[in-house]
Amino acid sequence: MAWRPGLLCCLFLSLSLATVARAATRRYNWEISYQFVHSDCVRKLAVTINGQTPGPTIRATQGDTVVVTVKNLLLTENTAIHWHGIRQIGTPWADGTEGVTQCPIQPFDTFTYAFVVDRPGTYMYHAHYGMQRSGGLNGMIVVQAAKGGKDAEPFAYDGEHDVLLNDWWHKSTYEQATGLASVPIGWVGEPQALLINGRGRFVNCSTMAPGACNATHPECATPVFAVVPGKTYRFRIASVTSLSALNFEIEGHQMTVVEADGHYVKPFVVKNLNIYSGETYSVLIKADQDPNRNYWLASNVVSRKPGTATGTAILSYYGGRSSPRRPPPTTPPTGPAWNDTAYRFNQSVATVAHPAHAVPPPPRADRTILLLNTQNKIDGRIKWALNNVSFELPHTPYLVAMTRGLLGAFDQRPPPETYAHQGYDIYGVQKNPAATVSNGLYRLQFGSVVDVVLQNANMLAPNSSETHPWHLHGHDFWVVGYGMGRFDPAKDPENFNLENPAFKNTVAVHPYGWTALRFKADNPGVWAFHCHIEAHFFMGMGIVFEEGVERVGQLPPEIMGCGATKH
């Protein structure tokens, strides 16, 4: 794709002249290929960027343009990359969502993503094609605040570390996807390891066939984070997990939460941090413990009964008597009880906007969409559905179809906006688990204010409800409310937080609970909104919003070539 700077003019006009004057262009050239790696000491084929997983961290300053040229060398497999948390104002075709904003990048083809990073913060990128995120195509994006700008950090620190959390399977993404689409279902199961910055350990290494697992391989060496005694450090933490909700802890060090999803929050102190797939946080720690020993960084599964060992790294003090790679003298922290929903719920509620950076939401919504999240069966296959509709991607990307008038490319009937909530028992197994499949979307009036309430419920098995992290592309939203039980549209909005709600792009819906969010439909384009658990989106847990698509500029021809746009 030939990048044209003029496509970004509208966004640059919205930035201060001082920021534009300092803006730079950050260029990256990536080759996507399968390579053998030993991320948890077990030899496995992974989807890599320039031979590595995770991929390189993108570092930029607010207002910079990031240009990433991607060459697909996967031989027999398409790909696409989503820049998670980047709103893509003026560049909706660069969102990287196959089936929504672009055709996938075919083998041996090259595609260039170009976009402005207009806000500072901690973000991530990952594949948005099939289940390639699970296969290793992911990494972090770190955007520094522009000097002297209004978004300067309201906290101080002496140094920073990046922490990318992930879960890891030995089965290929093809095996996982085939199992999910089978009758009976072949569930992906619990991960074999939890990774920190792409490294972990499979605890049953000694039981594998000779040569299959090498516990001394450098690719699975425990990561080390070095600190200077007395200094304060910012840890930027991102979760790109495919399934697992995690609890993160730095042994012996309290953490002060200061940022969530690229927005400053009212600081609060935690012993450990619950983080869901698609979320990012920044925490501050003081290096004020005994410098002569090492400490664990620990990642543990919560919200699902754990079947995976603790993921670990080491915090080591400069100048101490302990070797940086020496294991700490203690057992790695195991975190809170995996099924302590109240503990995790309360931490969600405690996350609110920083007083100096709070932007109150509009006082009322123009439209409310109430989505019941259920597990269903369609033709014998287990699916997930919203208001009894399971989502599937069209063969022609919505953005292309809607700007070119290809109305036959997807279902023109909009999905339902509510369900029969007054008589629905969210704690019981559905009496009728049948559902339909659709690729219809919700059309939003441009500039309108939209409330979405996500309602969790029981699954097909009795007494079972899971946490679902939902991610909205192209926007941030105000998290105006959380609740347990069934949402009451007549009463619960009275208790919405309209004073200082957190501004996020990913939010958890807790078991048997609901989460309410509010956003402005002011970014022309077509945007996915889905559960960030990869298997759940694959099984239909998602929807799509369209807003102001007639305002989108000329589409690059490189995003076409599939479905109804084949030449």
Key words describing this protein structure:
567 residues, disordered N terminus, 6-stranded mixed sheet, mainly beta, globular, 32 strands, Immunoglobulin-like, 3 domains
Describe this structure in words.
Dimer. It catalyses: 4 L-ascorbate + O2 = 4 monodehydro-L-ascorbate radical + 2 H2O. Its main location: secreted. It contains six helices and 32 strands. With 567 residues, the protein is mostly beta strands. Strands 10-9-12-17-14-15 form a six-stranded mixed sheet, with no helix packed on it. Strands 21-20-25-30-27-28 form a six-stranded mixed sheet. Strands 11-19-18-13-16 form a five-stranded mixed sheet, with no helix packed on it. The longest helix has 10 residues, at 341-350. It is globular and about 70 Å long.
Topology:
Layout: H1 9-14, H2 17-22, E1 25-37, E2 44-49, E3 58-61, E4 65-72, E5 81-84, E6 110-116, E7 121-127, E8 138-144, E9 159-168, H3 173-180, E10 193-196, E11 224-227, E12 232-239, E13 245-250, E14 255-260, E15 263-270, E16 272-275, E17 280-286, E18 295-302, E19 311-317, H4 341-350, E20 367-378, E21 381-386, E22 389-391, H5 398-403, E23 436-438, E24 442-444, E25 449-455, E26 468-472, E27 477-484, E28 503-504, E29 506-509, E30 513-520, E31 525-531, H6 534-538, E32 542-547
Parallel strand pairs: 1-4, 3-8, 9-12, 11-19, 20-25, 22-23, 24-32
Antiparallel strand pairs: 1-2, 4-6, 5-7, 7-8, 9-10, 12-17, 13-16, 13-18, 14-15, 14-17, 18-19, 20-21, 25-30, 26-29, 26-31, 27-28, 27-30, 31-32
